[in-house]
């Protein structure tokens, strides 16, 4: 998968914290794990997701690229549509099972 909920959470955390390192801590991940996921995703999408500012005495910072901001917004819309479709498909495919379910048994 090129982009999913895990990548979305990473980008949202970077956006909120302004730092890859702080995002990794917030997510309970190592900096390396977050960095590697970003790198792989950027390579697969062919675009930068994070704009990094090198540190110094005050430390570095990171912010999402315009592409990443559009990707996050688009993925949220897409995910919402998938959830709606998923609920509909579940209802269509499991209606016969749900209609034949046992009624709750009375306590003894």
Describe the structure.
The chain is mainly alpha-helical. The protein has one domain: Winged helix-like DNA-binding domain superfamily/Winged helix DNA-binding domain (Arc Repressor Mutant, subunit A, Orthogonal Bundle). Helices cover 65% and strands 7% of the residues. It has a two-stranded antiparallel sheet. The longest helix has 34 residues, at 66-99. The chain is elongated.
- Poorly predicted runs are none
Strand content: 5-15%
Number of helices: 4
Which CATH top level class fits? Mainly Alpha
CATH-defined superfamily: Winged helix-like DNA-binding domain superfamily/Winged helix DNA-binding domain
Head-to-tail CA distance between termini: 50 Å
Mean pLDDT: 90
Using only CA atoms, what is the Rg? Answer: 21 Å
Name of the CATH architecture: Orthogonal Bundle
Q: What name is given to the CATH topology?
A: Arc Repressor Mutant, subunit A
Describe the biggest sheet? Answer: 2 strands, antiparallel
* Number of structural domains: 1
By DSSP, the count of extended strands is 2
Structural class: mainly alpha
**Secondary-structure element order, as H and E?**
HHHEEH
Helix content: 55-70%
Going across the biggest sheet, name each strand in turn: 1-2
Shape designation: elongated
């Amino acid at each position: 998968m090129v982009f999913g909920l895990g990548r979305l959470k990473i980008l949202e955390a970077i956006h909120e914290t302004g730092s890859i390192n702080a995002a990794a801590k917030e997510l309970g991940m190592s900096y390396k794990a977050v960095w590697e996921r970003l790198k792989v995703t950027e390579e697969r999408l062919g675009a930068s997701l994070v704009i990094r500012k090198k540190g110094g005495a005050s430390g570095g910072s990171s912010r999402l690229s315009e592409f990443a901001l559009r990707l996050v917004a688009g993925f949220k819309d897409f995910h919402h549509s998938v959830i709606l479709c998923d609920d509909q498909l579940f209802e269509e495919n499991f209606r016969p099972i749900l209609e034949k379910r046992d009624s709750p048994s009375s306590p003894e």
